[in-house]
Amino acid sequence: MVFGPTHTFLRGLASYAFASFWYRVEVHTRVGGLEVGELVPEEGTPMIVVANHWNSAADVAVLSCYFPHYRKLHYWAKSTLFAPGLPRKILLDAGNLPVDRKTKDNQKLFASSFDALKAGEAIAVFPEGGSYTVHELPALKDGASWCALEYVKNLRDPRTRRVLSDGSTAKTDPKDVVISIAGIAYSDKTKYRSCAVMEFGPNIPVEPYIEEFLVSPKTAVKKLTAKIHEELVKVIVNAPDWESRHAATMARKILWPDDKKLPLRHMREIDQTLVDLFAAPNPSASLRRLRRLLNVYRDALYSTGVTHLSLSSLPLPATLDPSVPHPLPTRMRVLGTVILSTIACLIRLPFFLLPLIVHLPVYLFARYAASNALEEDQAQNKVALGLVLALVTYATFFAVACALLWTSIPWGGALLVAIVGTIAFVAYHNRLIDDNYRKFQRLLALWTVLFALWTPVAQSEASHFLHSVHPSLSPAPPRPDADGQYVSLETEDETDALMGATTTDHEDAENGDEGSGREGESKGRRKPLPSPALFSEQDHLLGNFPHPHLPGSHHHPSHQPNRPASPPVNGTRTPRSRTSTAAGSTRTSEETTIEMPPLASGIAAHEEGAPVTRAQARLPRRSRVREVRALLRLRAETVARLREALFDSPADGDDEFEEEFVEASRLYAGTNGNGAASSSASTRFEGRENASRLLARQVGERMKELGWRGAGLGSGKLA
């Protein structure tokens, strides 16, 4: 089948649009010793290209515009779209192949595909069946396998080998088809001026499956699909859950804040190595804390509307010691940085003012187009609307230039100058956009930080948040006992200690802690002291809650904390719960908490049923000032924990550490399916910590091998 001018026009338009959207696109192969041009066959060899589909039309643009040898690719489309007349002519001219899904005859189903393959052309297939945002490759459909095996079967028959669907004969003898594996990844698939990379795996021959296909078609097809899935997994990033995937992405952005310096050749391996670290079985408490820190920091960046790169101009603390509280940047230092950044932007502004004014509608409307779209559709929406507005803008610019030049020079010269001027103007804008865009983001983030540092937190807001409970930290719901009373659910999960779960009043009595209430006052009526459950998740991860050892705290440090009973309805008093003390008697306790909706949900506290006053109901749910200050502390804490985990230099007794790790790992491997170990709990904990430490150090060494050069983690030494 012949590609027409429609395909050439559409591919050229897509190349221009997505080249403006992405900063850099690279094509590599994971097959050692071969270049991409050597691995991917040139024109004349029939191919079925199988790729993942996680970014809608952007994936199609990457394949079509950056495919090796600049080969043209066919795509499947439903036969119902090929209506007689102009629609059919345009679709066929663009290289689309009609597929009749209603027919049961596979030879008819893939008739147009066979014609393209017999002509030595390539067909691109997304076997997932659609575009999705997923953390791992889902089960694949069998369309590509059926097409490849049916094509080889067609070639085996001398009567159909050279016959095309319209009855004509192929000019050359058809060749066997090759299945090519392509994985597409993005540094940030929704962001303007991000990077993309396409990585090819080894080709899959079809001949080993054809004999079985002639006997048992479905079995052979399933085996070939499984092989495609196996090879496709190797060229994309797969994670068992979103928490590990987001933690790995955030860690990579901390290690390489600037995409310009990111080694795209190794980006997939970098992400997959970090995913394997955070998804490791039986992680230690420190590793789980780091994973949670990375996720909370990512959410905080999204909530405040800034990026980690835009905060990179703010220096990190001189000593990145996770055991030391990290101070906020001083107001004067941030003010000085803001002044310098503002001056730098003002110096550049005259050179970029005209392109900025002309393209401002494109920026704003493209951003609006992606505001409510799915994650996998945001890039294509930005590009589509931005392209339309850009063409209108450039046409207007061209018309204005012609009108201004028409009176001074002949019309032919005016057209030529207008065309050249428009092209030069577009190139000038693309040349300056990267640096100015980054400086604008940085300046906006600095002003946000400066405003947060110079603005005090309102007392009413501080009180509102002090008596709020984040759902991820709220206690487990109570369950009624046989008497209808609510009792708390006890747990010995290590996460409780990590997240700061509190002890109940009856535990205080067991441990001999009488609290800090007035003498003779009933503890059941005592006003509860602020507990870790009353603070946000960021405060817990940063340690900003009353420590058990501090005076006035009624939490005993030596007791494994249990989750206190929480009310079944927000704002109501917890029913009295009967709990046996050490002496065998019973006592009651009660406590009132107010639960908050999830972070960044935009739901006010009074809408969640919390008992607040009218004045408090008018307050915003979250303080912008408090958000930004917490973000700065989160940034320092997250960077410190990541640096400590990956790059902390081992002590002099590293050999002893290795021996302890081997012994602890051997004992830890003796655990059964229920988590019970043959050794003590302390030995299991030590083995888990040592295993995680060693794995993290190995990942850190691998990051250095893949191109990390020490940037992004501050210059201070770990204490």
TrEMBL record:
Signal peptide: none annotated. Residues 501-593, 670-689 are annotated as: Disordered. GO terms for biological process: phospholipid biosynthetic process. InterPro entries: GPAT/DAPAT, Plipid/glycerol_acylTrfase. Keywords: Acyltransferase, Membrane, Transferase, Transmembrane, Transmembrane helix. GO terms for molecular function: glycerol-3-phosphate O-acyltransferase activity; glycerone-phosphate O-acyltransferase activity. The keyword Transcription does not apply. Residues 571-587, 670-683 have a biased composition (Low complexity). Residues 47-187 form the Phospholipid/glycerol acyltransferase domain. The chain crosses the membrane at residues 338-362, 383-406, 412-428, 440-457. This is Glycerol-3-phosphate-acyltransferase. It comes from Rhodotorula toruloides.
